[in-house]
From TrEMBL:
It comes from Butyricimonas faecalis. The chain crosses the membrane at residues 7-31, 37-60, 67-83. GO terms for cellular component: membrane. Keywords: Membrane, Transmembrane, Transmembrane helix. This is Endonuclease/exonuclease/phosphatase domain-containing protein.
Length: 362
């Protein structure tokens, strides 16, 4: 037993070095383009697991009273950006405001409405009414081709809409959409050359002001097929098959990091040429410590959760609720008033709802 404990003790040293390396690499994820170096992006995606591992190592070396405690301690402290992107003070003071000139915007990946409410009953109109939503951005929109405009308006409770369906079949259309209580005076499509992912923007006349709203659905991870293969190999104890599948998953993640980075640069170019106040919404399929998220944000967009969120923030229900990959951000023309992310059973994502106000309207 003593020999086993000693062997375990020795294993903790390379584990500490490895977790420190991955944790430090993750610090550079927001500023490192995956086209040039993709490892920081991988660390950023798995930062929750890396932080938990470093917490365990911190406790282990504290009990052992060894100087190795320095590495997990420094790694955790240096990832301050991850914590602020995931946790906000639950005692943050609310902003008192009147509801006369505010704008409430929501972003929701509806998971194709589970392929048109298959075994799921949903009520988007109820969400709109209960939360007084003025603008609704939807990702993974799936809509039957035979719906007319009146039926659509009744289903969503908002009179104006623009859609970008990048996949059309005989029975349904797939893509993203923007719904609005206010007139949409123009819109544009952002083509990612994909049947699953795309972006769009809409110029919306809100009372006497025009604002531009971006709705984005960045490259999905697409690892579900390889995950099923891994489980199949694991069930028959095929170690070589498991190893090959893990390599395939990492390579697939690498490719997706690069694709999302290029999509983020495409979106940012349009943001940089926009003269109206800007709100950016969407499912980025990446975390707040990612190049895609930070490149879109630039130095002029404020993350709604960092600004007005409270407590632990996550938007994706998979991976044990460890990831926040859905965002609403806005430029300096807006003041953030309130942020919410209600837990709903209709999708693998939760909606995020943000109330803002144009500063000159306060």
């Amino acid at each position: 037993m003593a020999a086993l404990r000693f062997f375990f003790y020795l294993l903790m040293k390379p584990a500490t070095l490895g977790m420190a390396f991955l944790g430090i690499a993750g610090i550079f994820a927001p500023s490192t383009n995956p086209n040039s170096w993709w490892l920081p992006a991988l660390s950023g995606l798995f930062m929750p697991a890396i932080i938990f591992a470093n917490l365990y190592l911190l406790i282990f070396w504290a009990i052992c009273k060894k100087w190795w405690i320095i590495l997990p301690c420094v790694t955790i402290i240096c990832n301050y950006n991850y914590f602020t992107g995931t946790f906000q003070s639950p005692w943050k003071k609310d902003i008192l405001y009147t509801q006369e000139n505010d704008i409430t915007i929501a972003s929701y990946n509806v998971n194709g409405f589970s392929w048109i409410a298959r075994n799921v009953q949903y009520d988007i109109k109820k969400i709109v009414e209960e939360n007084h939503i003025d603008i609704l951005c939807i990702q993974e929109h799936c809509e039957k081709t035979n719906l007319d405009s009146v039926a659509i308006q009744q289903e969503f409770g908002l009179p104006h809409r623009r859609v970008y369906f990048n996949k059309q079949t005989t029975w349904a259309n797939f893509g993203i959409s923007i719904y609005s209580r206010y007139p949409i005076i123009r819109y544009g499509e952002i083509n990612f050359n994909s049947e699953k992912n795309n972006g769009m923007w809409a110029d919306i006349l809100v009372r006497e002001d025009t604002i531009r709203v971006f709705n984005n659905h960045l490259q999905t991870t697409n690892v579900s097929m390889n995950s099923k293969k891994y489980k199949a190999y694991k069930s028959v104890k095929d170690w070589k098959g498991q190893a090959r599948t893990l390599v395939n998953i990492v390579e697939q993640l690498k490719d997706n990091f690069i694709i999302r980075a290029n999509q983020a640069m495409q979106i940012r170019k349009i943001i940089d040429t926009t003269r109206y106040p800007i709100i950016v919404c969407g499912d980025f399929n990446d975390t707040p410590v990612s190049f895609a998220y930070n490149h879109i944000a630039g130095n002029n967009l404020t993350d709604g959760f960092r600004d007005r969120g409270k407590g632990y923030g996550y938007s994706f229900n998979g991976m044990k609720g460890l990831l926040r990959i859905d965002f609403i951000s806005y430029d300096k023309s807006f003041t953030g008033l309130e942020y919410d992310s209600p837990r709903l059973p209709w999708s693998d994502h939760n909606p995020i709802i943000m109330t803002v106000k144009l500063k000159h309207s306060i």
